[in-house]
Amino acid sequence: MILFARALAALRAPASVTILALLGLVPPADAAPCPGQSDALGTARVMEVPPGARVGTKSFPQTLPLADREVVLTFDDGPWPTTTAAILDALKAECVRATFFLIGENARIRPELVRRARAEGHTIAHHSMTHPEATLAGLPFPAAVAEIERGIAADDFAAYGTVAGAPRIPFFRFPGFAATPALLDYLSQRGISVFGADLWASDWNKMTPEQELDLVLRRLDAAGRGIILFHDTKSQTAAMIPAFLRALAERGYHTVHIVPASATARPPN
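The line above is the sequence of Chitooligosaccharide deacetylase; the predicted structure tokens follow.
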């Protein structure tokens, strides 16, 4: 516990890159080959995230300790018919693992897509029960907590068939990044890490897949690394992802898969 407390303090501090590595919370590269595709992008390594972390420079002063040209792929708002399946197909073809921040209502309706994502090695994370129009910051505190907890329960039931006292994957992203100090404190007390993003594809705007690809690559080349936000509910994103993964490989980028601290040492649930 002392080790994780120090790691969490390090992740919230500007020196987190070196301290996390020194504490051994960044496992070695995952060099497993991609069957049938020798030039696949693949997943370069797995990174463990300590409990209660707050990362993503769009929301917080610090982000994950990524090396140059390393990216974490995240998808919000799913699962959604057709588009989530297409994105899972593209990720599977390139042996890339991503993180899906699910809306509980969508997970409840489409558990087969949640189970597929989990079975293919992706991280199942949380994004509230209904993605309320007013955002969680616009709700009374008890209602916002209920939105969070109901979403976690729905996601876990869809993924695992049971609901435990704590989320299986303690990762959360606020809808619209609209956090409050009280809700951040609540999640920290629950040991739940909060994710912002370092860059996004702006795929909530209408554009062609080609326009989205150009936009996100320009932003990524400017940033050099980071947590990238997509939405697996968007048809333009689903159409763009195969070309995006190919472009990452061609440009020398590497993908990092995020999991809770010590999750790699535990047997699958």
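Note on the example: The chain has nine helices and ten strands. The longest strand covers residues 70-76.
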